[in-house]
Amino acid sequence: DMEATEKIKLYDKGVNQEIRYGSYDEVLTLREGDISIPYFRMTEPLRLEASHFLDCVRDKKKPLSDGENGLAVVRILEAITQALKSGKPVEI
Questions:
Q1: Where exactly are the structural domains of the chain?
Q2: pLDDT, tens digit (0-9, with 9 covering 90-100), for 17-46
Q3: Fewer Cβ atoms within 10 Å of its own Cβ: the N or the C terminal residue of the chain?
Q4: Structure pTM?
């Protein structure tokens, strides 16, 4: 990411639906609104992750994202891949 600031921009866009009574018409109009730029404290993500890992080792606490969480993510990704190939839902 090459942006020094404004890492995330939220664009207020949408579609409005208008139903015209007396006919069977329906009109869709595009809507564009404001752009919001939320403030985020600028911290290096890898530094935060390493610091959290060291805190967990030192304080003997469970990490926010542990091996069980990683396994669950892999199972979900595998199920998504299988569902895409078969065209059918896959139970996890």
A1: 10-86
A2: 887 777 767 788 888 989 999 888 888 889
A3: N
A4: 0.48
